[in-house]
Amino acid sequence: MTTSIHQQHEAEKRRLRAAIARSRRRIDRRLRGTNQAAGHLVSWQTYVRRWPGLALAAGLGLGWVLAAGLRPRFLVGLFGARLFREMSRQATKLFARELKSFWSDTGPVETGGGDHA
User: Fold this and answer.
1) Degrees (nearest 5) of the Cα angle 96, 48, 73?
2) Single pTM value for the model
């Protein structure tokens, strides 16, 4: 009788350990995927590849701002500052859209596995 209970207890421990191991592997996979997605999200190269025109215009505006600081050309600097500001505004909007998309893609997934107390 005691041996049977002991065997059942050991079988239950093995089952629980296997379930915990599966959960750990699933969490690890999700974290790795999230880390990779976050790495792409904060990489400037991702945005240059996605919106090369915006990146070029922002760089051009920044270059004009810096060049105007070296030379007394007020209008060029003013135009460059305006261009850079506008491109920064657009880049911020695009980044916010990407962040929302990333957030919705990595949200919690319902497994329908039972009660969550």
Assistant:
1) 95
2) 0.39
